[in-house]
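Course exercise 7: structure representation. Students receive a sequence record and must write out the corresponding structure in token form. The form below is the worked example handed out in class, using Bcr/CflA family efflux transporter (399 residues). Read each field label carefully; the graders check that inputs and outputs are placed in the correct fields and that the protein name is recorded exactly as given.

STUDENT ID: A-19
EXERCISE PROTEIN: Bcr/CflA family efflux transporter
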Amino acid sequence: MTASFLRTAIILGLLSAIGPFAIDMYLPALPSIGKDLGAENNIVQLSLLSFFISFALSQLVYGPLSDIWGRKAPLYLGIGLFALASIGCAMASDIETLIVFRFLQGIGGAAGMVIPRAVVRDMHTGVQAARLMSLLMLVFSISPILAPLTGSAVIEFYGWRGVFYAVMIAAVIGLILLSTQLTETRPKEHRSDSTIGSAIAAYRLLLSDRNFLTLTFIGGLGISSFLVYLANSPFVLIDHYGLTPTQYSFAFSINAVSFFAVSQATGWLGERFGLVRLMRMAVTMFALTMVSMFVVMSLGFNQLPVMAAFLFVGYGVLGLVIPTSSVLALEDHGEIAGTASALMGTLHFVTSAVAMVITSIFFDGTALPMAAGIALCALGAFLVTQATIGRRRRVVAAE
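STUDENT ANSWER:
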């Protein structure tokens, strides 16, 4: 592994983590925001939802822009907007203003989610791409490990407004690294055929590509399982199991450690078994673990250590599912990698939003509805994989 390979992974991972950092670091601040701005909890949660909505939909714009303008220009635009919106969030005097600036923050943060995946596809394919993607996710996983802990510490000393100044500083660091350390991977001669019209045609192509959609939804259902946990875990672990906010931050971080540790084996296992076979095995184990968790908890063994053990194993295996499904989905779309990455990201978040809403309808303050939502997402990924992947020549050829 060369130094430049590792440096690229670190930079892309940090750029990718800026948006999620603004989610994970924000979670411990929700109660204090409600008290300070005089808003009900469900209204405060709209500030989280507004970020999710703009974060998901804006990816559809950044993808084509990165194909037309190159990778760096849209990153400057998005991360710059994110930094300015973070200042607006920190200075908000009422919940409505905060919701608006969170929406703008999501628009900016979406650039860091879409474009790094396209850069990976510009540089590599196959196992090398999977290795770079897994390294990117190693850095990306810093967010759910450090963000809640950092958020709790910042809130303790500087209040909830300090959270937004902290993510603004992270965005400025990202802009500096982008300017000084990352080269343009889509040169001008590769952009000549990229237009708004070609982007629309590319979206039509992708939406008719069963292979791309299948792999995207497999990854999306895996991500959905984690976002169901993210949305419900503060209430389950703190209110139901009685953890303190700091204990919750540690519990939340443990699953991220498992995820990124296992994801680092993607390149080696991909060379040994092939990416398609590796993904099939990982999805099977992921579903088996999460469905078993729900069954065991339904039988009355619903203590926190039991749930935590299943989640640790399940989210570890998910560290193999996400990079392999992403690499395979982009494999055949190098010329429109930005657009493909954008549609993939949007579909991931739309799938996650649906899963979060359905789970919230049945949430009763206990751990079982959350476990059911996680298990259903994992089972869905397994069923889609079994029904499609490995039975189309085009997918097998990517192996």
